[in-house]
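Hi again,

Forgot to attach this to my earlier email, sorry! This is the prediction with glutamic acid bound. I've pasted everything inline since the attachment limit keeps bouncing my files.
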Amino acid sequence: MSVAVRFAPSPTGLLHVGNVRLALVNWLFARKAGGNFLLRLDDTDEERSKPEYAEGIERDLTWLGLTWDRFARESDRYGRYDEVAAALKASGRLYPCYETPEELNLKRASLVSQGRPPIYDRAALRLGDADRARLESEGRKPHWRFKLEHTPVEWTDLVRGPVHFEGAALSDPVLIREDGRPLYTLTSVVDDADLAITHVIRGEDHVANTAVQIQIFEALTNSEGGGAVPVFAHLPLLTDATGQGLSKRLGSLSVASLREEEGIEPMALASLLAKLGTSDAIEPRLTLDELVAEFDIAKVSRATPKFDPEELLRLNARILHLLPFERVAGELAALGLDDADAAFWEAVRPNLSRVAEARDWWAVTHAPVAPAVDDPAFLIEAAALLPEEPWDLSTWGTWTGAVKAKTGRKGKDLFLPLRRALTGRDHGPELKNLLPLIGRTRAEKRLAGETA
Ligand code: GLU
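Structure tokens for the complex follow:
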């Protein structure tokens, strides 16, 4: 059996860290098993689905490196859902209901006030042909519910272990709306069956859906010879540091804003999300392959994982400190630092939390800087000792050795005035690395107190 998984977002908004974590876990699962990963757009909600969100999903996954082997769009498959619905009607598993939303609300409220679970009472099953004809003559159109078997539903969840539901404790789900449109509970199962999905890995907000959907899988298998029931894994959803769901901050936690506003590297996000809520420590990883090698769904814990944007930023910094120039050359060029090279990158990366901060150091090495001068006489003495070019990583040591011998200064008294004159700042990347990038002409002028 070859493993097949899917990530099935609804294109009704931007992907946020919670969604994309599920995409990543599915992708890692597929790659680890040598299986395949399907991207499926659950876009049957035509009012809320938007092409720009669908494009955003593809852009975000591509940015993270989560390539998909297969692609499907539910709105391409209405004909197929109609076929399945017809078969389920023929076998009596889909039955027409005529209650209005107001009537259903009243029924629910009445059950709840009696302390009973709000389970649909199946009144529609007791209608005869004459009743239906009368309701339709009043202009009512049916929605269609799936008739659940009142038997236990059980599965062994890869995260939650054995799960048990009583069919009788579940409400018959509506699968077809009054306007004939099929709903997610049905379309997802039809797709998973037709596309031979072997493992459904999703958030624990879908646990009750799974109980219902297992019965739908079984009904399809019976009426149509459809796919086998997949294995399920339900991951606890991410929360913020206080344990609240992330929904309130979804805008700021969208993948697009982490990338475009927060300057987060794809491997920082992947390194965090692959390990959050698992028994593995969170460490910077530079390639998805490393995460694949370390992945095991058995490491996913049932405890609620907390997402902390500060932790992500710290990991971003650690990743940048390790990333070779080739991996950031495109980003540096996009910042307008076209001439940035490996020497520049290696000089400045230890001081960065975000790539965009490289601009500040580019301004120090490649643009005029107003030096900070406290002790002009000392700086003039130091300037006179600057070696001739070419300069390399040994120049700083040679030069400051000579300045120390000549002036008797050492430590902070020696280095801080030089740093303040050469860069205009008190802190920054190692001067050993910066000095050759600043070059002799600029260094000499800055030591003389000139903006250069
Ligand atoms: N479109 C559904 C969602 O985003 C898919 C859930 C599933 O994985 O079945 O919640």
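The mean pLDDT is 96. The two ends are 68 Å apart (CA to CA).

That should be everything now.

G.
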